[in-house]
Amino acid sequence: MSRFTGDMEFKFVREAERFDLRDVGVSAPALQGYACLWKKVHWYSRLRRWEAFATGAFAASLMSGKAISAYTEHEEIGLFSTTADRLELIQDQWGLAFRVQLRKGDDHQEQLARKVAIGEWSEVSVGYRTVREHTVTIEGKTVHVLDECDLSEISICKRGAVPGTSCRLIDARGRKTLREDLRGGNLLKGAVTANAARKAACDQAFENVKASTEFMYDRLGAIVADARAAGLM
Asked: Of 213, 185, 198, 225, which is closest to residue 2 (Cα–Cα)?
């Protein structure tokens, strides 16, 4: 149980305080969710137009065998995996699903896991080049439907353009394959909840403060004892 009120919990974890992932039952951290969803109309601010991905828009890219990257916030410095190394991508009737196993002991990837766990980074975006498209009119708006796209990367981010994308922290140990999770409708089942992660972070912060306070009192006691022994008190 957390030793703090709700308001204090948010203050402690707003910068994704370090906490042991094992405290939320994760021994083999992995990220999983939907990087893109089909037929979701969204505003693409760079081109200032409405867009929607057609079902299976990335089929050619996935079949090509080329390496597709996983970044944070579309920044190359944030590269942490590719489809040649731990990133798995599968299209289904709903969108583009992904799973990426994280390296334990890698500070950047473990910090990413913590940020996803507490909900700071909970959405996903895709980087692509449009190959083929057509336009339709929906509620008076011209919407560019992207029939085929050359996918280059997915990015874990705070806010993605396509509504409904998701990124959650799971424990890959003992987990079924991504394809089996999709077939069973279990893509997000068993993921770490933001509430559980906040409590773990808050308890860790409490233990850190407690240890620091105890050390200071012990140190002060030693100083006082030395002063008394020296006849200074």
From this structure: 198
Q: How many structural domains is the chain composed of?
A: 2
Tell me the mean pLDDT per 10 residues along the chain, length 233.
46 57 89 97 93 98 96 92 96 97 90 91 96 96 98 95 95 93 93 81 58 55 61 61
pTM listed for this prediction: 0.79
In a domain? residue 7:
no
For 163, other C-beta atoms within 10 Å of its C-beta total 11
Residues 153, 222, single domain; the answer is: no
Count of residues for the chain? 233
Domain enclosing residue 209, as ranges: 193-233
Query: Cα torsion at 66, 156, 194, 201 (round to 10°)?
Result: 100
SS3 of residue 116 by DSSP:
helix
CATH code of 70's domain = 3.20.16
